[in-house]
């Protein structure tokens, strides 16, 4: 049984692929990507930056029951669902940063999570990476994994417009188009998987902040964010909306030990009188478009991404299919 499999990643696409009958379509889930390892004795959950997050989501330990007598490596997304059953990254933020067992147990009652399983990478002595997507999905569906905190969402071959329309109607982020005959390519961002989003959204590195006014005096009023272009950190935008008071306090506490005198941005100059920090924190930002000057229009903060390596944050440009 493999001890480590890095997740396969999707390429951002400007639209659905033209050969839809050669692709399978799934909903895109707004959460934390996690590989699940079950060796017959214990469950281990690992993020794409190889962090063990098993203790943070104890409700998922019960997944061992339907897997009893098997050994498996599964791929999926951990999400928190709102009162309408829709994934909410804002809700998930209340679970992501917790490490103390008492805090985790208390919060899990208010914000339970679900593990959306969409791939099977290893089963009972057989590594499945070279098998086609549809073959892996068939093996996954045969496991019958549906429970109080996990499920295997459906997929469909072709008719991508229907699923994309359904994702809009259900308040989801978009769809993933996976070539039906594609193998699983660990750690690679492959055009065999395409993500099609309704709204532009990506991770960006926090390089500083601007002090707020009024009740926010002494706290961040806006974040200064950017992305890596080779060895250069490029300034992208000032983000001043989307924060709760609790998140502002948390951001201030996280950024305080990272303060530095000089700007970490090699390209671009933030406005105002910024406080600069070491570029070690990653934020999820939603926005309407990239401007001609290379900045974000109407950006809004959605949450912190402790599961992402800041050095891997680059500008995502939708690929024309």
Account of the protein in words:
- By secondary structure, the chain is of the alpha+beta class.
- It is 15% helix and 36% strand.
- It has five helices and 19 strands.
- The chain has helices at 89-96, 101-110, 133-142, 160-169, 245-255, and strands spanning 9-12, 23-27, 32-38, 43-46, 72-80, 113-123, 126-127, 150-151, 156-157, 174-179, 189-197, 200-211, 220-229, 232-239, 259-260, 275-287, 289-290, 296-297, 300-304.
- The strands form four sheets. Strands 3, 4, 5, 6, 7 and 8 form a six-stranded mixed sheet that branches. Strands 12, 13, 14, 15, 16 and 19 form a six-stranded antiparallel sheet that branches.
- A hairpin with a 5-residue loop joins β17 and β18 (296-297).
- The radius of gyration is 20 Å and the shape is globular.
- The mean pLDDT is 94.
Q: So how many helices?
A: 5
Mean pLDDT: 94
Structural class: alpha+beta
The whole-angstrom Rg is 20 Å
Estimate what percentage of residues fall within beta strands.
Answer: 35-45%
> Based on DSSP secondary structure assignment, what is the total number of beta strands?
19
Describe the largest sheet: 6 strands, mixed
Query: Based on CA inertia axes, which overall geometry fits?
Result: globular
**What low-confidence regions span 5 or more consecutive residues with pLDDT below 50?**
none
Q: Could you spell the SSE succession in H and E letters?
A: EEEEEHHEEHEEHEEEEEHEEEEE
